[in-house]
Every structure is written in structure tokens, then in C-alpha cells.
Design goal:
It is found in: Membrane. InterPro entries: Rer1. This protein is mainly alpha-helical. About 5% of the residues are buried.
Amino acid sequence: MDGVYGDEALGSSSNPALKYRDQMARRFQYYLDKSTPHAGMRWVGTLVMAAIYCLRAYYVKGFYIVTYGLGIYLLNLLIGFLSPQVDPESEGPALPTKGSDEFKPFIRRLPEFKFWYAFTKALVVAFTLTFFSIFDVPVFWPILLLYWIVLFVLTMKRQIRHMIKYRYVPFSLGKQRYNGKKASSDKASTSSD
């Protein structure tokens, strides 16, 4: 079995630093795997980290370029999360457009877990950058904020139009539940009396 980074053949078994790195990578992957079914708790933790980052940027009164870059990256992740894996515009309508078409489930271009993981990594990187003054470039932050809001509105408007045009909804609130036939259950309850 290859190591996490595929360097077993390079002699990592004799190098203690590489052994330690592989051990830490396996442990990290173990905890990532255990967190997979707990989406709500993962997102709560990430939102707490985002709040801490916002407080840090607010109290330091700087790092607006880092925050702007983080916002653009998160917007890019959000678009990937809301987009279908197969774009109906370029490859034809893979999603059903008529009632008689076969149902095909919505498959995201960026799955939820990868979205969360990339979001969290970006927050950690941005938070780390706030400890280095070289990244605190003096800018007039209201212009950056206004530009980001305009970018967000235009991008979401385009995405929503795309969703309406190709009739897909990227959200589902669980599995659809069907109740059994009412008539057969009524007959069973009357026959048992």
C-alpha cells in the first residue's frame, strides 16, 4: 500500500520526518472521514471560524485585500456548489425538461463536503495571513466592498437565470416520502377488528 503522498518507494520508511508526516496525514484523514456524516456540526464550526476571522479583521482594521480575495474565492466555490456537474448549456439538457422525461438527480459540480473543506481551508489561510503585516495593504475598503457586492449580485443573477432556464434546483430537503395506499391500509384495519 502506498503512503498518503505515494512516497513509500522513495524510502520514507527510514526517514522519521516522512514517517511522522504520513502518520499525521492519516490521522487528519481519519478525523475528516469521521466528520463526513455530521454536516450541520461541520458548518457550525466553519461559521464560528468565519465569525472569528471577521472579528479579527474588524479589530485589526486592516487586511481588506486578504478579505476581498477570500470573498472572491468563496463566491467561486459557491458557484461551483450551485452548478450542475454536466452543464446543460454546453452538453445539451441532461436534466429533464418535460414531465415525460426520465428523472435525473441533480449532481453538483462541487459536492458539499469538498465545498465545506475548501471553504474551511480558505478561512484558515486567510486567518493566518492576518498575522503578517506584509499582507496588510492600505486600500479604501468601501470600494472593495461595493465591487464585491456588485460582483456577487451579477453572478447570482446569472446563476439564478441559468437555474430557471434549465429548470434545476440545487437544494433538496431530504428524500421525498410517499404514504402507502390509503384504501389498502383502511381495509387492513377494518379486517383486523
